Amino acid sequence: MHTEKLRVGVSRDFLNSDGSRSFDEEAWNRLQASPDVELQFLDQAASMPVTRGDVQQFDALLIKRNPVASALFHGEAGARLRLIARNGAGYDHIDVDACTRAGVMVSVTREAVAHSVASSILALMLAFSHRIPARDRMTRAGQWNQRWATQGTALRGRTLGVIGLGNIGLEVFRLAAAWGMHHLGYTPRPDPAKYEGLNIQLTGLATLLQRSDFIALCCPLTDSTHHLIDAASFGHMRPTAVLINTARGEIVEETALLSALRERRIAGAGIDVYETEPPRRDHPLFSLDTVILGSHNLAYSDELNRAANHAVADAIRAYAAGAIPRDIVNPQVLAHPNFEALPNSP
């Protein structure tokens, strides 16, 4: 398909502060060994937007955080770019509609991150169940005689509600199966065939909020999920409920969350993501002892890094070989004239 090497722009997200690569070595070597692929790190920082120059000089972009705006594709700016391979599951910082119009595929690595993200959700549940932060603080303060005053909450028999039943949400239920919890699930587009054996009771959103002891957000950020959890949502929750958000900060209305926590209308929150990132140093959540906080990386592990890096490298290698990468989020783009030569294109 390509008459010359596939030029791939690589985000600086895959460089450590000392300049060494954080990308899995085996996956990187497989990319470098491909005779049809040429790799070059982007000039801009990992959090800075993709530029018009990038889409003009590269056939593919291997990114994580770099935003992709619609303005990049005005005029002839998207003439060379054909693939954005995103290392991760979310793509709310990429204008997928604009990519589709310009004939640019967008791939993600949903399967590669599901287990690690689900594990981080369960870690937060266990931390709240066993009151680990409170017990840690008590021990460090020398309050040994008060250790029996802090009682945990067993998970057996409690109710776990998961909002969003994609790869991550279903993996949460798989991992939690041994705990003997009741499983409630909400999604606007249910697919019961995928839930076989997971003992999931599908409910409406309000019912899930009312009945759940632990509420895990596993949905993508879209126009319909922005502030999905708002003041009215917290009004439905039990005073013993714990909200866990490892998805996207904008799914939760933070001012409503703060009010619910301060007024003890919910028991706690596990928060790995924020409406504005990075959060400011005096963020009100930081002063609350009923919150466990992360920095949008609780799932980051050797397993996640290896699996996601291999998956995103495979997407690049597949396209370089003239094939359609796995996990394309805009499959309708394959009808674009840019991909007439690809096998299985419409």
UniProtKB/TrEMBL annotation:
Q: Where are the transmembrane segments?
A: none
Q: Which Pfam families match?
A: 2-Hacid_dh, 2-Hacid_dh_C
Q: Which UniProt keywords apply?
A: NAD, Oxidoreductase
Where in the numbering of this chain does the D-isomer specific 2-hydroxyacid dehydrogenase NAD-binding domain appear?
A: 122-296
Q: Which residues form the D-isomer specific 2-hydroxyacid dehydrogenase catalytic domain?
A: 24-330
Stored Gene3D superfamilies:
NAD(P)-binding Rossmann-like Domain
According to the UniProt entry, its GO molecular function terms are: NAD binding; oxidoreductase activity, acting on the CH-OH group of donors, NAD or NADP as acceptor
Domain of life, source organism: Bacteria
Report the sequence similarity comment from the record: Belongs to the D-isomer specific 2-hydroxyacid dehydrogenase family.
Protein's name according to its UniProt entry: D-3-phosphoglycerate dehydrogenase
Organism phylogeny:
Bacteria, Pseudomonadati, Pseudomonadota, Betaproteobacteria, Burkholderiales
